[in-house]
Amino acid sequence: MFGPDKCGEDYKLHFIFRHKNPLNKDLEEKHAKRADVDLKKFYTDKKTHLYTLVLNPDNSYEMFIDQSSVSRGNLLYDMVPPVNPPKEIDDPNDSKPDDWDERAKIPDPEAVKPDDW
């Protein structure tokens, strides 16, 4: 999704896309950082404006309003949350406790249903 958004006194230029996380396969929405310039003048001058999003093969992007750059960044690093998830460092000393229970559900012997259940 790309385009302008005005909510109250908050003026935004959105660039949002969905990305499948390679680790857990979840679809995540990635939002571009806020514009580098004050957008209020574009929303309050009551004129039409040309909003442009340029995506480059090197994973960089740039957003323009009326052919003037208002924001730029990198698809992999400047999105929130980042497209490339932080690397996890495997801890070789990490282990489960000896009394670890592998069952998916562990029954609670003290659990009882309420009277009005």
UniProtKB/TrEMBL annotation:
| Annotated region described as Disordered, given as residue ranges | 79-117
The keyword Lipoprotein is assigned to this record? no
**Entry's InterPro entries?**
Calret/calnex, Calreticulin/calnexin_P_dom_sf, ConA-like_dom_sf
Keyword Endoplasmic reticulum on entry:
yes
Compositional bias, Basic and acidic residues, is annotated for 87-117
- Name where it's found: Endoplasmic reticulum
Record keywords:
Chaperone, Endoplasmic reticulum
| Domain of life, source organism | Eukaryota
Q: Which family does it belong to?
A: Belongs to the calreticulin family.
Q: What is this protein called?
A: Calreticulin
Question: Origin organism of this chain?
Answer: Goodea atripinnis
List the top taxonomic levels of the source: Eukaryota, Metazoa, Chordata, Craniata, Vertebrata
